[in-house]
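Chapter review: from sequence to fold.
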Amino acid sequence: MCYDVGSRIVDGMSTVTAPSTQSPAPARPRARLDWRLRFGALSLIWGFSFLLIKVGTDGYAPFQVTLGRLVFGTAVLAAAMAVKRERLPRGGRLWGHMAVAAFFLNALPFSLFAYSELTIPSTLAGICNATSPLWGMALSMVALSEDRPTRVRVAGLGLGFLGVLTVLGAWQGFHGLDATGTAMALLASLSYPIGWIYVRRTLAGTGNSHLSMTGAQLLLATGQLAVVTPLFTQLPDRFPVVPLLAVAALGALGTGLAVLIQYGLVAEVGPTTAQMVTYFIPVIATAAGVAILGESLRWTTPVGAVIVLAGAALTQVRPRASKSGG
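The token string follows.
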């Protein structure tokens, strides 16, 4: 899901922290798999994350699922940092900004998605996740003065939210829809671009590697959930194996490994191509929910999802630079 270290959701705005001066050439000799295979793997991992959340919440409280996810994800990044001999960033002010980023990009959206799937199907949660680029474009027009809206992007924004209304069956009075769970999933998707705008304003150009920054961010998010979880949950009387394995996979694969794959793709093929994974996630999430969990699917769900993705794609269209005279 979008940058799951977010976030999913990494959506289009996550490219803000990608080093534009980094040449992709050195990354290619080190690549063990063709980038297309890694792109497909990333799509599958993030697409199946919503199924794993649903399975995890069958045995554990949502905060426990989120905490476990963060623990396993942090462990993967800690191992990667140890292999590459990288250290955590230094500086109290930097860690303060990262704590805010960890809340909006990890602790909050992960928890909201876990709670939402108590009452809504994983298919709907996956489609709600696809609205992150729409929220990001709307917020960037307000918060980022250099991100100028165009007619195409504004049209994409309107089309995308029309798709959301289609998914929710607005003209049918939202019949059979759990409003609270759906609102939580949409708020989770909104949290990602809020976090990325904050990152862009406060953490761009720190000189630290993506790996060390992300490792620190996940560590902080883990600490936040470690404080919150005991306040709202009790230690389980038993530890169901299947939900526990789902949480472990969600963290190790969907949060840890996925981030490493995503950053490798950004370095090798650029952020524009890498962010296209966003459009495959709801398709895979829907297919997994229906085929494996037996979730029902109204015609409005896939039709609305296509409209959402089309709108999200339009919001990512950048105007061509005007040619200078002479």
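Two observations follow directly from the output. The longest strand covers residues 2-4. The chain has a mean pLDDT of 83.
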